[in-house]
């Protein structure tokens, strides 16, 4: 197994007139031995480029990359002992699943009997023993990805790299495959780096998550720590099946207490008293602009609240209701902002109806609108 360390790594591509385009900028990142690290971010954020640099498919412009305490900047791909699974399975269509999985071992000169044992073991762990005689066109998408995963698994590499291998599968297959990858990691206890743009996939699979945007790692932490304590507005808005609600406003002082006052030119603005935890962070922002961030599950229908705080009650109008069985998502209009709340149960809410909701301000965040960093 191996530890992967980036030290000040940058990747630049030459452009016209001698200019260079930087797609990865001064990356410092450590993937611990036996860890499943997920790189998550929007398209074009640099996730796949990071993976390709680990594999040796992209040259490192600046900085150093260490695998198992060895600098591998100039080490060719075939000598890095890395296995990579791509977005499409990249199987040979004229070979059977077995032949696809054994091909790399034969190329490396592994004895035939040993290679067959390795393939059978990998196929058993991935549940594709019954389809080893079939060619890729006869396999389902999930089976093809399992065969591609098995082809990587038989080499017993130091590091597994996954470049969005589940993105081409349907929703049910994605759930099944991400579960299999998580089981595989637990069973093998090997270093894995998984790239995805799917926040749910990142949250459910990773030991830690690195959130990327525009070639930079914005925050690295455990899934729930990222979700509950985002360092920036981008992280708060990107992580989670629904993005965090952001409301622009100012900090006001009244009778020794601090309030968040919404910027709302249309109707009466939201006015929310800040609890002590937020008031300490906002003390230097009195009279200044801030952004309030709060997740949908922290905005509740007042009817289900036992002891609501009067200073945290907001009048809104229902724009859209999305019942999902055990819960309902409500798209609400404050007059100045559109926000989303989550209601437990299958209650029906009529469009354009007036509703009073409660903000759990103990779980809210305040951000600087210029730097987009959370107030600390």
Structural class: alpha+beta
| Physical arrangement of strands within the biggest beta sheet | 6-7-8-3-9-10
Number of DSSP E strands = 20
Strand composition percent:
25-35%
How many strands, what sense, and barrel or not for the largest sheet? Answer: 6 strands, mixed
Helix content: 10-25%
Q: Using the coordinates shown, work out and report the CATH topology of the largest domain.
A: Rossmann fold
Q: What does the average pLDDT come to?
A: 90
Fourth CATH level, the homologous superfamily of the largest domain:
P-loop containing nucleotide triphosphate hydrolases
Low-confidence stretches: none
The CATH first-level class of the largest domain comes to: Alpha Beta
Count of alpha/pi helices: 9
- Number of discrete domains: 2
CATH architectural arrangement of the largest domain:
3-Layer(aba) Sandwich
Distance between the termini: 38 Å
Q: What gross morphology would you assign?
A: elongated
Give the C-alpha Rg.
25 Å
The sequence of SSEs as H and E is EEEHEEEHHHEHEHEEHHEEEHEEEEEEE
Structure description:
The protein has 2 domains: 4-238, Rossmann fold (3-Layer(aba) Sandwich), CATH 3.40.50.300; 245-367, OB fold (Dihydrolipoamide Acetyltransferase, E2P) (Beta Barrel). Helix content is 24%, strand content 33%. It has helices at residues 47-55, 97-107, 112-126, 141-153, 171-188, 199-205, 223-228, 233-238, 276-282, and strands at residues 4-14, 20-31, 36-40, 62-67, 70-71, 82-85, 159-163, 191-196, 208-213, 216-221, 245-254, 257-262, 271-273, 289-294, 299-301, 313-323, 327-333, 338-344, 354-359, 365-367. A hairpin with a 2-residue loop joins β9 and β10 (216-221). The mean pLDDT is 90.
């Amino acid at each position: 197994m191996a530890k992967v360390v980036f030290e000040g790594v940058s990747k630049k591509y030459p452009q016209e007139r001698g200019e260079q385009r930087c797609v990865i900028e001064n990356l410092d990142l450590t993937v611990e031995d036996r860890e499943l690290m997920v790189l998550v971010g929007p398209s074009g954020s640099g996730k796949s480029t990071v993976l390709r640099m680990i594999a040796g498919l992209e040259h490192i412009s600046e900085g150093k990359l260490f695998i198992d305490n060895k600098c591998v900047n100039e080490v060719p791909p075939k000598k890095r002992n890395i296995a990579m699974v791509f977005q499409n399975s990249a199987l040979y269509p004229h070979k059977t699943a077995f032949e696809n999985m054994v091909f790399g071992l034969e190329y490396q000169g592994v004895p035939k009997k040993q290679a067959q044992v390795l393939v059978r073991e990998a196929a058993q762990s991935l549940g594709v023993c019954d389809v080893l005689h079939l060619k890729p066109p006869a396999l389902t998408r999930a089976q093809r990805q399992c065969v591609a995963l098995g082809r990587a698994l038989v080499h017993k590499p130091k590091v597994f790299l996954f470049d969005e291998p589940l993105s081409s599968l349907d929703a049910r297959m994605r759930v099944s495959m991400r579960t299999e990858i998580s089981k595989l990691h637990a069973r093998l206890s090997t270093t894995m780096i998984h790239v995805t743009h799917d926040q749910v996939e990142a949250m459910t699979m990773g030991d830690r998550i690195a959130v990327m945007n525009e070639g930079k790692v914005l925050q690295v932490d455990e899934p729930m720590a990222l979700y509950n304590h985002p360092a920036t507005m981008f992280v708060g808005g990107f992580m989670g099946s629904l993005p965090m609600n952001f409301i622009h406003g100012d900090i006001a002082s009244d009778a020794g207490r601090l309030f968040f006052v919404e910027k709302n030119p249309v109707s009466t603005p939201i006015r929310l008293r800040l609890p002590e935890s937020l008031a300490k962070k906002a003390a230097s922002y009195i009279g200044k602009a801030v952004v309030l961030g709060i997740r949908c599950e922290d905005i509740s229908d007042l009817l289900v609240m036992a002891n609501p705080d009067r200073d945290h009650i907001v009048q809104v109008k229902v724009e859209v209701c999305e019942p999902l069985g055990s819960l309902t998502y409500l798209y609400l209009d404050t007059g100045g902002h559109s926000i989303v709340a989550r209601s437990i149960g299958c209650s029906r809410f009529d469009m354009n109806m007036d509703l009073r909701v409660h903000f759990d301000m103990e779980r809210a965040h305040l951000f600087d609108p210029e730097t987009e960093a959370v107030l600390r």
